[in-house]
């Protein structure tokens, strides 16, 4: 049996800093919000999939929600964790094993720049403690090379970040809700050229949840189901040159974002031109620019003109990161992709408020990129 899959409920705990509140507690808030949105009780959920970087056993959240005995699968795929959870949840319904399930993401990261525990990839602990394992170095080099190769200015990076801060100001769930001018962004401390402080996202805290069901029963819970047309997760075909160390030969390759996006469009039977609203991984402003091309929305080097013309603004022809993206929301890793889905569902329902894309959007695309080279692409439609 193969079923179509619909999203019938979404919920979020705001992203930011919440002293005295655990990731698990934020996760339960997101779950309850999604249940309320779908008009369901926890006992109606037949299975769950969840992911986190900081929480070793997110399945323990059932002890806080209610011990109903449901199967719970823990997943982790770095920044692509939520795509993996979404895929596992949708596939279990698509294959007929369950009727209703929930995908959950949650995290609570310490303050400061992202520093991955090096022991997770076989490096000595001191390597991270003395600052040699900061992801900003990699992202700066990657952006610098891309901008050089394709004639894109640092000012365009500032335009991307300023746009996302403006969008975050319209989002009550965002971490950073104060608009920052392009000049302020350019003048902020240089982290790794060409990326300044305000061009980066920050690790923070938050949670999000998405409830899915068989499409043929979705009308029982919502008058406007959003259909999961494709979720595809891909890795590189050879080597790596990412933030994590690798024992494989280091060789440049087409990004896994390209593979994931192409596969998602093929599976969904749509093209980039059919998409009305886009969520792209913007760990930094350069990443959003790069992913515009890698996902197929423009050619390499075309971004500078599109961004200058306002194409990626909420009012533009290709709205990108309408909720402020990672730059405004920060990144609690496990929850990041669920936030993207939450925003796409609101946009396709027409309930995104001040940041609503005009014209009745019918298709949304989300891209996650997780080190050391895993990407997830999701396509949803009305």
From TrEMBL:
Pfam families named in the record: Thiolase_C_1 (PF22691), Thiolase_N (PF00108)
Domain Thiolase C-terminal: 256-363
Presence of the UniProt keyword Transferase in the record: yes
Domain Thiolase N-terminal: 5-174
Alphabetical keyword list: Transferase
SUPFAM superfamilies registered for this protein in UniProt: Thiolase-like (SSF53901)
Single annotated GO MF: acyltransferase activity, transferring groups other than amino-acyl groups
Residues that span the membrane, as ranges: none
Source organism, top-level taxon: Bacteria
Protein name: Acetyl-CoA acetyltransferase
Organism: Nocardia alba
């Amino acid at each position: 049996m193969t079923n179509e899959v619909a999203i019938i409920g979404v919920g979020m705990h705001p992203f930011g800093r919440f002293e005295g509140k655990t990731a698990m507690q934020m996760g339960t808030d997101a779950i309850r919000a999604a249940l309320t949105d779908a008009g369901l009780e926890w006992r109606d959920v037949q299975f769950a999939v969840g992911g986190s970087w900081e929480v070793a056993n997110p399945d323990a959240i059932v002890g806080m929600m209610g011990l109903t005995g449901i199967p719970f699968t823990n997943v982790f795929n770095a920044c692509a964790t939520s795509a993996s959870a979404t895929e596992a949840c949708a596939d279990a319904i698509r294959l007929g094993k369950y009727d209703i399930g929930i995908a959950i993401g949650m995290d609570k990261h310490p303050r400061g720049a992202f520093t991955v525990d090096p022991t997770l990839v076989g490096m000595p602990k001191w390597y991270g403690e003395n600052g040699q394992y900061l992801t900003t170095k990699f992202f700066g080099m990657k952006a610098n090379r891309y901008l050089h190769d394709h004639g894109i200015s640092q000012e365009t990076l500032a335009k991307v970040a300023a746009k996302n801060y403006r969008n975050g100001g319209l989002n009550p769930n965002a971490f950073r809700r104060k608009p920052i001018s392009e000049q302020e962004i350019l003048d902020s401390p240089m982290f790794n050229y060409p990326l300044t402080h305000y061009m980066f996202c920050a690790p923070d805290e938050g949670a999000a949840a998405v409830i899915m069901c068989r499409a043929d029963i979705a009308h029982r819970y919502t008058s406007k189901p959003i259909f999961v047309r494709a979720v595809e997760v891909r890795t590189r075909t050879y080597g790596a040159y990412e933030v994590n160390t690798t024992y494989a030969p280091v060789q440049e390759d087409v990004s896994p974002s390209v593979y994931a996006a192409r596969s998602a469009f093929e599976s969904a039977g749509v093209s980039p031109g059919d998409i009305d609203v886009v969520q792209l991984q913007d760990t930094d402003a350069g990443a959003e620019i790069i992913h515009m091309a890698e996902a197929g929305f423009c050619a390499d080097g075309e971004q500078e003109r599109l961004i200058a013309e306002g194409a990626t603004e909420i009012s533009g022809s290709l709205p990108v990161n309408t909720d402020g993206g990672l730059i405004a929301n920060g990144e609690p890793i496990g929850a990041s992709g669920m936030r993207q889905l939450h925003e796409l569902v609101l946009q396709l329902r027409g309930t995104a408020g001040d940041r609503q894309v005009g014209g009745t959007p019918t298709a949304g695309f989300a891209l996650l990129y997780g080190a050391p080279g895993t990407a997830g692409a999701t396509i949803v439609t009305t």
